[in-house]
């Protein structure tokens, strides 16, 4: 067991039965009353962020996690089939562990699973940036880079994003999986 003096950004604790990561914390010692720690916690299963105050010295359960690299093979009805890069063992992971980033995963992409001591999957992380080809969009306009007008595009994974007017079908784009936003066009 640890206590509030062990808090640091990125520490994963068990709070209300779920794994939470400490995003931010602040030790506060008011003039009157006991000291306390104000924290911002993010639920690793749902992504929900909440604020909580702990009494100074209050004990918390720290969860030890291990990061494991897997390769995304394909999607099936039960979830995503991943292959361990070291043992070549295949596992199926439900889509809920991936959040919105699952829409930007293509076959062969590398993902990381956060696994606790009991080999239970806490969460899955997709790469922050991926490169995907535009499958369908309206024709682009050459030289139209001055304004910030956007148009819809469908990527090779089926995800829909807003892109600048000069983007054409077949262009390869860099996409931010956290926001689902266009970053830049990648040279072929």
Automatic annotation (TrEMBL):
Swiss-Prot/TrEMBL GO biological process terms: peptide biosynthetic process
Gene Ontology molecular function, alphabetical: translation elongation factor activity
Cited SMART domains: EFP, Elong-fact-P_C
Translation elongation factor P/YeiP central domain sequence ranges: 67-122
A GO cellular component entry from the record: cytosol
A family per Pfam: EFP
Keyword Cytoplasm: yes
CDD domains, per the entry: S1_EF-P_repeat_1, S1_EF-P_repeat_2
Annotated PROSITE patterns: EFP
Compartments (UniProt record): Cytoplasm
The Elongation factor P C-terminal domain, residue ranges: 130-185
Pathway linked to the protein: Protein biosynthesis; polypeptide chain elongation
InterPro entries in the cross-refs: Elong-fact-P_C, NA-bd_OB-fold, Rib_uL2_dom2, Transl_elong_fac_P/YeiP, Transl_elong_KOW-like, Transl_elong_P/YeiP_cen, Transl_elong_P/YeiP_CS, Transl_elongation_fac_P
Main location group: cytoplasm
Keywords: Cytoplasm, Elongation factor, Protein biosynthesis
Cross-referenced NCBIfam families: efp (TIGR00038), PRK00529.1 (NF001810)
Protein's job: Involved in peptide bond synthesis. Stimulates efficient translation and peptide-bond synthesis on native or reconstituted 70S ribosomes in vitro. Probably functions indirectly by altering the affinity of the ribosome for aminoacyl-tRNA, thus increasing their reactivity as acceptors for peptidyl transferase.
Assigned protein family: Belongs to the elongation factor P family.
Alphabetized HAMAP family for the sequence: EF_P
Entry protein name: Elongation factor P
Species of the source: Stygiobacter electus
Top-level taxonomy: Bacteria, Pseudomonadati, Ignavibacteriota, Ignavibacteria, Ignavibacteriales
Gene: efp
């Amino acid at each position: 067991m640890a206590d509030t003096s062990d808090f640091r950004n990125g520490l994963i604790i068990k709070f209300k039965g779920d794994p939470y990561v400490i995003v931010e914390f602040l030790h506060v010692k008011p003039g009157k009353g006991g000291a306390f720690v104000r924290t911002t916690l993010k639920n690793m299963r749902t992504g929900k962020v909440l604020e909580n105050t702990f009494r100074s010295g209050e004990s918390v359960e720290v969860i030890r996690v291990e990061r494991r690299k897997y390769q995304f093979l394909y999607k099936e009805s039960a979830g995503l089939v991943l292959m361990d890069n070291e043992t070549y063992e295949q596992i199926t992971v439900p889509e809920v562990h991936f959040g919105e980033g699952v829409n930007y995963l293509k076959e062969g992409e590398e993902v990381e699973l956060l696994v606790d001591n009991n080999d239970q999957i806490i969460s899955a992380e997709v790469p922050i940036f991926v490169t995907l080809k535009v499958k369908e969009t309206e024709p682009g306009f050459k030289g139209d880079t001055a304004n910030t007008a956007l148009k819809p595009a469908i990527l090779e994974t089926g995800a829909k994003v807003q892109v600048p007017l000069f983007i054409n079908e077949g262009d390869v784009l860099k996409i931010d999986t956290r926001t689902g936003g266009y970053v830049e066009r990648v040279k072929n």
